Hints:
Number of domains: 1
Oligomer: single chain
Distance between the termini: 14 Å
Amino acid sequence: xxxxxxxxxxxxxxxNQKSKDDVDRExxxxxxxxxxxxxxxxxxxxxxxxxxxxxxxxSKIFLNELEKELNNSEWLFNDSFGLADASALPYIIRMExxxxxxxxxxxxxxxxxxxxxxxxxxxxxEKAITTFIPNQLIDFLGQCGQDQKDEVFKLMEKN
Length: 159
């Protein structure tokens, strides 16, 4: 779901700057037929692609479940940051990078907001996340997300 959301909002803009032949060649090189079709739909239709809308629906379920799991605990499993937290983290980071962090702000999902704030204060966050992801990519994804945020939220409400 995270990849579909990323492509639907941001990466399709990169591909759409290439020639149609280059895009077709790149998409045609995807060996899996379903993934190839989904990528083509994401590039052609963006946030209106069925796979994007399904990814939004699944993300909403994920965020609701994550919020519920954090209701009685600071971490997803045991009393400290662990594998479950590390597994959920990339989805939250990508949502933030795509300017969709309103989905887990203090008003909408306060448990996720608090959990993420604690993680961002950890030394490992700086080492593994902040320095690893290029600022140019974050800025690009953020601008794409900002430009489409209202439409994405409307789609999420409907689905």
